[in-house]
Design goal:
single chain; 200 residues; Ribosomal Protein L9, domain 1; 9 strands; 24% strand
């Protein structure tokens, strides 16, 4: 099957993962017809239109470069950090409300780290207390893993947090209870020769 010919359009706005305002891009006809053109995000390029957007393009490019520099700094600041979040849970460590990308983003923002929730790559919400590794990714080459520690808001009865293990799906791995070591029985003490006897 022959591939449909791509159409060339001039972006009137910056579109993530496509280009910045003033860029001439090649897109699939359906994307142009159903999205870019009806929403007036792009138009058919002409030398005059390209020239008219030249100044806006320069401004957008400078903003993009500044944003990338900020993200590079943020990735550096995220290296090796661990975020602690306290949540309500039941006695088995299951959270009453899951931890989402927004929760992680909000916690990082409170620490003055500018991380939008879209940059938090979480396959599924966190539903149990424990330690997790979460990827923060802004661009293909701007990626870092951080630690997320979910703590209970109270002491859990009969559940040792330090001994909890989770499988790849975040499910608690049931462990066989440890048998308590038997206390060694002390040998019965022989009566002391000085101890009084019934014959006394």
């Amino acid at each position: 099957m022959a591939q449909k010919k791509l159409v060339e359009l001039l972006l009137k706005e910056t579109v993530e993962n496509l280009g910045i305002v003033g860029d001439v891009v090649r897109v699939k006809p359906g994307f142009a017809r159903n999205y870019l053109l009806p929403l007036e995000i792009a138009e058919v390029p002409t030398p005059e239109k390209i020239e008219a957007l030249k100044e806006l393009r320069a401004t957008a490019k400078a903003q993009l470069e500044a944003l990338r520099a900020e993200r590079i700094d943020t990735v550096g600041n995220l290296e090796g950090i661990s975020v602690k979040l306290t949540r309500s849970c039941n006695d088995q460590g299951v959270l009453y409300g899951s931890v989402t990308q927004r929760d992680i983003s909000d916690a990082l923002m409170e620490g003055e780290l500018n991380v939008d929730e879209r940059a938090v790559r979480l396959n599924q919400p966190i539903r149990r207390i424990g330690d997790y590794s979460v990827v923060i990714q802004f661009e293909k080459d701007l990626r870092v893993e951080i630690g997320i520690e979910i703590l209970p808001d109270r002491t859990l009865d009969g559940l040792d947090e330090e001994e909890m293990e989770f499988d790849e799906d975040g499910e608690l791995v049931e462990k066989a209870p440890k048998s308590a070591p038997k206390a060694e029985e002390a040998p019965a003490e022989a009566p002391s020769e000085d101890a009084p006897t019934d014959d006394a």
